[in-house]
TrEMBL record:
Superkingdom classification of source: Bacteria
A GO CC term attached to the entry: plasma membrane
InterPro entries the UniProt entry points to: DUF3526
Organism annotation: Xanthomonas hortorum pv. vitians
MF annotations from Gene Ontology: ABC-type transporter activity
UniProt feature coiled coil, ranges: none
Name under which the protein is recorded: DUF3526 domain-containing protein
Keywords: Membrane, Transmembrane, Transmembrane helix
Membrane-spanning ranges: 21-40, 131-150, 177-200, 206-227, 239-258, 448-470
Amino acid sequence: MSPALLVAREELRFMARNRSAAIGVVLLMLLTLVAALTAAHHQREVAEFRARQQLAAQQAFEAQPDRHPHRVVHYGHFIYRPLPALAAFDAGVDAFTGNSMFLEGHRQNTANFGDVRQSSLLVRFGQLTPAFVLQVLAPLMLVFLGYGAVAREQETGTLRALLLQGATRRQLFGGKYLALAAVAAACLLPALVGLVPIALLPGQALRVALLVLAYAVYLLVWCALVLSVSMLCRRGRDALLVSLAVWVWLALLVPRVAPDVASAAYRLPTRLETDVAIQRDLRTLGDSHNPDDPHFAQFKKQTLTRYGVQRVEDLPVNYKGLLALEGERLTSSLFERYAARDSVIQQEQNLLVRTFALLSPTVALRGLSMTLAETDLRAHERFLIQAERYRYTLVQQLNQLQADSVSMADDTAQDAGADQRKRISSAHWHEIPVFAFQPPATTEVLRAAGAALGLVGAWLLAALCMLIAAGRRVGVAR
């Protein structure tokens, strides 16, 4: 057995003899396992709930009786975003962004019913997921187990004796690093067991493999940081205090401050402010109910010319349906403009948050983890874009039904039987396609995760360089 492995074995034996250390490792492994099981159970329940709600919403939409198409436009439709498989590992922003949308004409709604909005304030402090345990609690365990790995040897004087007996710094410190890495692997093992069933799902194997690799590299970064601090401090007490300060800075403070700084630097208008701005701009677009409105007067002229008639009553289609089609086209273009503005601001915020990954490996890993799990803001925006596209198609299909299936005479009639003549068969509601969310391809997810994966790797390289530099200083008179 090589000297480094002998040192690692003795270090692990020392940890095992320390009851508190052994109990801590076992408890963290159990906590990771419990987090994996509870998160998987919660994910399954949420996925089933959303599927049931989506089915109920679709059945309610198709169960509408014969009615005027424009009433169906205002009746609206609910859609739900399916939960990604890896959300059981890292819930990401899903609890904050909402998971369903109400689709209706003339309005673009936001996602609703996020867990944070429906639960107690405790949800805001973080969910017990394997990602949270490995990102925050596992490094703390490594701090408590590794702060004295070298400082203890220096404090008792055994380090000099080991070096005088022929052990090299590389063998001695490499063995202690291997011991901490073994503890990190033990912390990662329960999460790995929970990820195996997800990896067997179609298209998930490569993502799971990269996720495990990223967390393994992240924990190795912490092993190097903790051991470096232990080398640079002569006393165990000092090493513990410095290591805890490093953990607070890297795992808690920077990840917490980064979003606040980004929000302050790039302010996102509130929903109320956006609605007010949209209503203001809607007044300048044109009013289809005003015969003197310039835009719709020109639209009327172009429509009559296209069909070769002099009056809207002579059109082969219902002019009110054509007005609805044009009005929805105008309002939707306005909605898309404001949505694009918000998307640009959020991308700038995310870019600023990612720069904080230079100050904390936790920030880098968190972004990478959410990207691979499809629970980041990019995945949420994908749902919003597809939902708006479906909303526009749904509304315009109903407006086209009004133009083609309801006559202008019946649509404007006020007699007793007019309401019945305006209605069309409910069979049309069954012809409207069902909403189907399209997740991103694996290649697209990997491209998005590339930069964050590189940052995590860069942190490992920097931590190892620090470890080597600190190792050269050990034993030097100070």
